Amino acid sequence: MSNPIRIVENIDRATFDKDIRLGGQPVILKGIAAHWPAVKAANASPKALGDYLRRYDTGVAVKASVLPKELEGRFFYNEDLTGLNYQTHGRPLSFIVGWCLSTMGQAQSEAVYLQALPVADFVPGMAADLDMPLLDAGVRPRLWIGNTLRTQTHFDYTSNIAVHVAGEKVFTLFPPDQTGNLYPGPLDRSPAGVPISMASLEAPDPQRYPQLAEAQAHALTARLSPGDGLFIPPLWWHHVQTTGPLNMLVNYWWNDARPDLIDPIAALHIAGLAFRSMPEAQRKAWREMMDYFVFSGDPTGHLPKHIRGAFNPDLNPQEMAQLTSFFLGGPKRF
Q1: Residues 308 and 249 reside in one and the same domain
Q2: Strand pairing of 6-9 and 27-30?
Q3: Average pLDDT of the residues in 201-218
Q4: Mean pLDDT of the chain
Q5: Pair 48, 178 in one domain
Q6: Domain stop point among 225, 254, 283
Q7: CB neighbours of 303 closer than 8 A, spacing ≥ 6?
Q8: Domain extent for 231
Q9: Is 79 helix (H, G, I), strand (E, B) or coil?
Q10: What is the pLDDT of residues 222-269, one digit of tens each?
Q11: pTM surpassing 0.90?
């Protein structure tokens, strides 16, 4: 079961900033990159895309993840959760392209995946082909190349525009309020570098993960064509099914929050250490405090700004740095 996802065409920067960027909902950006040379090559054939990619190969080894064919393209943990179920090899881009193309026509093969490769660092000549007028020039593209595989349900901490270039790609998205129904894995040890769901969408286990069905009732499905983009807001879970002998995606990550904030995931870990082992009555009281002081509109609006401390919405960079240093390095308050 899936729900409809908004599709927009002929999007410009002003409309994106006003109606989409901070709206908190995924949106398909139809045809945003249909003019890219890579998309045109992909529409011709996988071989044509391979030739396009080889032109930009600098010979520098890049890290490709390789999964045995019996695991059917699911990049995940190993059986006892002590490590990962795939290996990483350093190879030039041309080698990886040839590896993917060599699996063409095979019913089952090794899954090969090059993930989040900074274009400017490894294939700089390609950067001019990957224009993204919806974002500032400082938001740099990253390259994803593989064959048929699955990216386990996960979320990113920042905003994302994912541009599908070649093959077939289907995103299944879940809003942040479904986190509890997706059974997150460890925050600090993950195949994706970010938390993933422990539950499989392809082979649900209702006895072990009974609430997954509730999450699926809230899912959005985005089936992208080459040249389509997908805007994914921060903390939206997404599962990705990739099909094709040579599949390519380009993405752009950025953060609209001010850059000098304390890392939210570090704050989450600290909050866990502070509150999880408290007696239930204390945890309930602290939850009310957190909701009021952190997530309400303006908890200290009744106070003069010079005595609002960390809750002053207009802290300048120097004040932010001073308070951050004090609370991360200062003495325990009680």
Answers
A1: no
A2: parallel
A3: 96
A4: 93
A5: yes
A6: 254
A7: none
A8: 6-254
A9: coil
A10: 999 999 999 999 999 999 999 989 999 999 999 999 989 888 888 998
A11: yes
